[in-house]
## 1
Amino acid sequence: MDIKKLIRPELVTMKSYAPIEPTEVLSRRAELPVDKVVKLDGNENPYGCSPRVYQALAAYPYYHNYPDPEQRELRKALEEYTGLGRRHIVCGMGSDELIDLVLRLFLEPGEEVINCPPTFGMYPFSTDICGGRIVDVPRTEDFALDVSSMKKGLTRQTKVIFVASPNNPTGNSSTKKEIMELIDTGKIVVVDEAYFEFSNATVADSVPSYPNLVVLRTFSKWAGLAGLRIGYGFFPVDAADYLMKIKPPYNINAAAQAAVLASLADMEYLRANVARIVAERQRLFGKLKELDWLKPYPSQANFILCSLSYSLPCHSEGAKRPKNLAKEIWQGLRKKGIFVRYFDTPRLKNCLRISVGRPEDTDALIEALKTLPVIATLSEAKKKQSRDERKAK
Ligand SMILES: Cc1ncc(COP(=O)(O)O)c(C=O)c1O
């Protein structure tokens, strides 16, 4: 029996999501002890979670019982943290699950979803799985939303528009004006604020005023809980009620709930870590900018996208041009135990995304970048090229 014949045909051919790997796997790949791995590929929190999370997890007495399907304590604590009423709030197994649930709620087979690449890969992934159709409206040269093209791309079949703000992997935020223009189209607008705590820009306060605005957040980044999988969203109250109806009843496990409650009771500690990451983002940006062959893009998140600048001789005639330099750099860093993100797409082929780590991670990264053999060879070629040009004059 060929099982493929029984699977939905569009799922047989759909593109897989390219996930990152955990530290233990990376340490085996790099043949380095875990504590020598510099993990800058997942936009995770280099300072981990609050120490109170470990205490709460050790002390929690009810792992043998199912968790609360109504998420009562969580929604109450999130109301206090965010200032938005609990009836607007639904928690998911990471914001990944909420992306999926929103599409399950609104999308009928064949309906369209507006996606603005380069952006987070889960929007097309979940759209495919939900039987929808992705309509890509690429961002502009500087990665801003192309709002007029987005509006032109709308049809009667369009149901949902996804906007990550700050956007992953480009780091820039959308303006409130742009979001409002999209809300005015009447389509469901999902603003994914996974990196909100690093940017402090939000449209969440508008959720109670619009029946078609959804805002998603997560504990994975600022609170260091990526491994426990918990996020939340703000929804119009009716939509929140339907989401509560269709979500898997026990989607938030007891450990994730205990961890979130402990985190929200330790805000001073977590906010201090966010401040350290934001300060390090600034320092990393400056260090990357000093390398004349890299162009970092300003970021409001906990990562920086860089493109390879065209001052490298690999872009000029005559010099030996590596087929895919960004990939070579990515591989060269991996050999040194430094993991960053490379995207194999036409628009990002020339780019690397680097998560903001601790100061020592920045130092190790910059040192490694400066000493990569491929860069040394190209720098030599560049010097020679300049000498030859001077001679020719
Ligand atoms: C824009 C964006 N949204 C959502 C997520 C997923 O977050 P979670 O860990 O809560 O599923 C990420 C993770 O990288 C992201 O970059």
Note: The chain has a mean pLDDT of 94.
## 2
Amino acid sequence: MSDALSQPMASNSFGTNPSSAEQHNAPLLQLVDITKRFGGLSAVKDLSFSLQQGEILGVIGPNGAGKSTMVNLIGGSLAPTSGTIFYQGHDINRLPPHRRARLGIARTFQLTQPFIGLDIRENVMVGAFFGQRGLNRTGASRVADEVLERVNLAHKATFKGSQLTIADRKRLEIARALATNPQLLLLDEVMAGLTSTEVAQAVELIQQINKMGVTVLIIEHIVHAIATVSNRILVLHHGQKIAEDEPSQVLSDPKVIGAYLGERYAKERRAE
Ligand SMILES: Nc1ncnc2c1ncn2[C@@H]1O[C@H](COP(=O)(O)OP(=O)(O)OP(=O)(O)O)[C@@H](O)[C@H]1O
Ligand SMILES: [Mg+2]
């Protein structure tokens, strides 16, 4: 692991005693009966699952299934209508996004939005400042350079966001998230719009990040990629979990084929 990424997290206080046996043995992330309603629509409904340290959990489901809403709930940009989110055994429901970032939760955005006036290094520095306390400009710049190296964007550090290809913009999203020094990385469609070679590179990058000790939750529509990279796959449909198992089980589950895979497999075959 690089120096910047292996630093201990800066004073990540939950405001409670983190050393009890219960918290020590707790899953890294646990959602308990989470519901998010927008008016009459339940975008996420009674969703419960947990994620152990070191895992890669894939999340799939049709458009509008509630996947990005789930990421927004975990990252803290949305509050659940009901239910509780635990991180390392602590209830984080009331914590704002920057506090969650400092606890080690990082996310990418489905629609990439680099700061247009900033170059790539500066974009990543924003991530470093957001997630790590007490960094000065030099420290943030060092973190940015290490992370850009890791995602293979170092040669474009002085480019503006508008000069990047789709694949580079996706890498920049990952770099900004990594610069927060995460324990848990939430990836929302970082492979969308990539060529098959770029998808293979992205799979490799995610595997490398995971080997560094980062737990990953990855949302993707590219079924073969998510099956390759994930230890387990959770399937959402109309905001509800309809399956959660190892990839081979999920991909052969008639419920999942009926709700999602039938159509996706056909699309992937047409694209080949
Ligand atoms: N801020 C919001 N206000 C109202 N409705 C919303 C809001 N955000 C999401 N929704 C609705 O919630 C549902 C779930 O949306 P979400 O973006 O989570 O789906 P998704 O699974 O990420 O889909 P996709 O695969 O297309 O990215 C959709 O019906 C969407 O229109
Ligand atoms: Mg989405």
Note: The two ends are 36 Å apart (CA to CA).
## 3
Amino acid sequence: MAARKEKVGIIGSGLIGRSFAMLFAAAEYEVWLYDIEKSQLSSAVNEIKAQLKELQGLQLLRGSLTAEQQFNNINTTDDIEQCVKNAVYVHECVPERIELKTAVYAKVDKLLNDTCILASSASALLPSKLAANIQHKNRFIVVHPTNPPFYAPLVELIPSPWADSDVVPTTKSIMEKLGQVPVILKKEIDGFVLNRIQYAIMKESWRLIKDGIIDVEGLDKVMSAGLGRRYAFMGPIETAYLNADGMYSYSERYATMIEGVMATFREPDKFDGPVLDQIQSEMEQLVPMDTLQARRNWRDKRLAALAQLQKRMDNEDEKK
Ligand SMILES: NC(=O)c1ccc[n+]([C@@H]2O[C@H](COP(=O)([O-])OP(=O)(O)OC[C@H]3O[C@@H](n4cnc5c(N)ncnc54)[C@H](O)[C@@H]3O)[C@@H](O)[C@H]2O)c1
């Protein structure tokens, strides 16, 4: 007899919730997707079905199940109890508003098993604030995904300060089973790590455009054809390490130059006004607003192809 599938509850079936539903379904969990908006649930189901079919056609499905088998692992409900009762893991994916998220936790708190992990996709809300008033604060963790989680596997794990010692290792192993790449933050900090780095890049990009140093198209190329090429498979620290003969050599060769440039950085600009108008208008020339969904699909295909390439190269590395 086949082993009973472990149950996972996903609360919120928007961009992030539906992507996690696909990931858990591919890893052979029994998935229950819940939303307060019935129309969101039906659009999630239609989109998931279409995406799985397309991924199967492109041979880019995750796991070993067919698209149909994966789809059959996903159930939807408008009853929160049916979603979370007896789940081993519950993943909250509702909008980034503390009063909304904490209202959801107040409802699920009394329905959860004591061993169930309660995860949040929060992008910036701190676990110490999110979990402060819940009974299961010892089972709470933020699992911050990268959008879209199906194609960009990094997840940041930030446990609540009250988390039991098994919460981080169990969540890490669940994420690895999905094929995600977890990193663990030792302490909470505003913006976590991914967004702090992303916003540092955004801050300087804004300034360079504002000061008329480069246009939007050129700025984005610096990342897509330059820095991003390496960053797709190694971080800034290893990049520096290899760009010289280790970190001491890097510091010896470049520290004075880097510190000199860094001294010209300045306080962040406001993200509005004429620079916002200029960036929106230049972007509209490159990607018209009525082609956003097509452009997202273009992005997702490339992310999926990149994931395949990386998997193939990882397999080759393992064989060596
Ligand atoms: N979209 C991103 O790029 C991204 C990336 C990383 C993390 N996140 C985080 O993930 C979370 C979800 O974001 P999203 O982009 O999927 O939002 P979204 O707006 O696409 O989806 C939110 C869903 O939650 C539902 N919802 C609202 N209140 C609810 C409730 N009380 N109970 C159940 N469902 C409810 C909505 O109907 C909607 O379907 C946020 O915390 C966000 O910050 C988003």
Note: The chain has two domains: 7-184, 194-232+269-286.
## 4
Amino acid sequence: MLEQQQAGESLRFNDIGKVFPGVRALSEISFVARPHQVHALMGENGAGKSTLLKILGGSYQPNSGNLQIGDRTMHFKSAADSIAGGVAVIHQELQLVPEMTVAENLLLGHMPSRFGVVNRRAMLRRARELLTGLADEIDPSTRLGDLSLGQRQLVEIAKAMSHNAHVIAFDEPTSSLSAREIERLMAIIAKLRDEGRVILYVSHRMEEIFRICDAVTVFKDGRFVRTFEHMSDLSHDQLVTCM
Ligand SMILES: Nc1ncnc2c1ncn2[C@@H]1O[C@H](COP(=O)(O)OP(=O)(O)O)[C@@H](O)[C@H]1O
Ligand SMILES: [Mg+2]
């Protein structure tokens, strides 16, 4: 279950700016993503979507601005900070270790152990729980590097969801998934939304955006263009024009 404390809280970006040497990746990005909604981020390549999610995930620090969850202002200095703040980001580039098993990847950092000895059976059981509904067919004792790219992406998603985060951000999660895997992911995202979480969803695929998203924010060249609060009032052409 979701932490009582965070239920109902929005995620707010306030004037976020990010500069890389020679590139202004984000300028004064402000918008709100609400609980019980899937909020799409759209914009051409290089618009700054992944940079914003890396700031949310604590991998990058902004040069200006901040983000808020509910009424708390967050300054994430690391990925661990972001996780502790109730955030899970599934990055575009996979973060897993191919030489380790699926279970080890899923539970890295919090393996069930007794007197310093990892409880292998408990670990496999917990890993199987985390994969339920998303990738039941993956055997947690498989070496990660032996899975297909789509399956690895599902493991990454299962890992991010294991922290029971209030805010969950997906960066192009379907890029290497099969049609059947996409269906399962869509069902899980709908469930997370119905539980009252804040979901951010980055994709180029219009049909996914219109199917799963409730609101959409458009970026262009690192700048905020517009938020449409109701996908249902928006046409495909309007969205394309805006981008
Ligand atoms: N680590 C980095 N170092 C330098 N420039 C970067 C870095 N990450 C992103 N950029 C630049 O920032 C801009 C936004 O990139 P990105 O956030 O990846 O866009 P998107 O995800 O919307 O395609 C681009 O111009 C990109 O080249
Ligand atoms: Mg990107």
Note: The first helix runs from residue 49 to 56.
